Amino acid sequence: MKNISINPNVTFQILDDEMIILNKATGMYHEINSSGIKIWRILESGQIKPSDLKEKILNLPDTNMKIVEIDNFLKDLLIRDILIET
User: What percent of the chain has a predicted confidence (pLDDT) above 70?
Assistant: First the structure.
């Protein structure tokens, strides 16, 4: 897989322990939980290889996510055009 990054057509707002994402191109809203927010924070730094992203996530304190969960989350965001390959 190539590098991934947040689609520039996406805007978001964090509300307590969840995040609401709006894809302005599709008009669709999406909700992300606190685990997804941890991943999103790393994505905000710019383009990143998925393998590097997974390594950073797995090294975060209090993270109990499994690689398959991270993979599924990233695939879902790519399908929904929230993330793009760069």
Answer: 99
For the chain, the residue count is 86
* Interval 22-49: pLDDT, tens: 999 999 999 999 889 999 999 999 999 9
Residue 18 falls within a domain, yes or no? Answer: yes
CA–CA separation, 10 and 27 (whole Å): 10
pLDDT for residue 1: 62
**Residues of the domain holding 42:** 4-80
> What single letter denotes the amino acid at residue 85?
E
Q: What is the CATH number of the domain that holds 58?
A: 3.90.930
- If you search the block for the tokens 């999406």, which residue do you land on? 30
In a domain, 85, yes or no: no
pTM here is 0.89
CA distances from 77 to 9, 30, 31, 44, 83 (A): 13, 10, 11, 14, 5
Number of domains in the chain: 1
